[in-house]
Amino acid sequence: MKARKFFKAAGLCAIGLVFVWTFVFLYQKSKPEVKVYELHQPEVTDLVKSTIATGKVEPRDEVLIKPQISGIIDEVYKEAGQTIRKGEVIAKVKVIPELGSLNSAESRVRLAEISARQAETDFGRIKQLYEQQLVSRETYEKEEVNVSKAREELQTAKDNLEIIKEGITKSSASFSSTLIRSTIDGLILDVPIKVGNSVIMSNTFNDGTTIATVANMNDLIFRGNVDETEVGRLSEGMPVKLTIGALQGLTFDATLEYISPKGVESNGANQFEIKAAITPPEGVTIRSGYSANAEIVLERQEQALAIPEGCVEFSGDTTFVYVLTKSEPEQQFERRQIQIGMSDGIKIAIKSGLKQEEQVRGGEQKKG
Fold it and tell me: What is the pTM of this model?
């Protein structure tokens, strides 16, 4: 009997404990959760807003050397990577004569030889008669002119035949179009031809074969693109900091010298081309085609009182922050209107409405 009373009392106690625990649990759940926020104190710092343009480094002057005649590459005297002076020979072209032109030139030579022999014979007769005073001086001088013309025509016909065969005459070897020369001082970037390759001259219907690419590597520029949202802040003469991926840890000074007046659509956005003159330090070799990033400072503010931009609440044209007024037992904040200045994308300058010793509300702290 006593045992039954004991178990009954124990059961009632257990039910009571469950009821109390349930009540406490529901009470705790019904209480509002206390939020704890990160706090940020304004600091005096320098703010810099910049934009990054991607592009590549290339020489300002890059010249494609093309032949003035068509033919086959007979010799190549230079290779990529060598420096070259204006007028130096890069390659020699061997002319392959066209059969019709060759036959015509040979026929012209034969006719000129016949005319020259006849003129020489006639002049010889007249000269003898003149010496015997049987013909006038006027007749002699006319025949002398005729023989000179015949000699000149023969030489011209021979030169023409030589040009068709060889692309050059012995009398004008220094001006030969078969010798392909550089038109500028610089560095040879590429020689895309080899001995035996056929080449054609540049004309109205064809760009011609490129014998070599020569550039002045002492005058380099950065060519890149910026978005239309930032191009309006750029102006010629702005300083540029250049970073080249292939040259880790080095930055180069450059000066913005060109901003395209016309944008080009790329991936759904308008891009504007820019160019900047590079000033490489001595002893550093920069190669044509290096990928590079150009940092251009759009706006700068020194010794500004700043806070993280995420702390600012934007409401139309008005901005607010939440200033800490009490820490214990719970954080309490005052919503205050402020005047802001420039932003670098991370921090924003405070013009008025906040003191350096005050603290503002940031993001909610994550519970461990």
Answer: 0.59
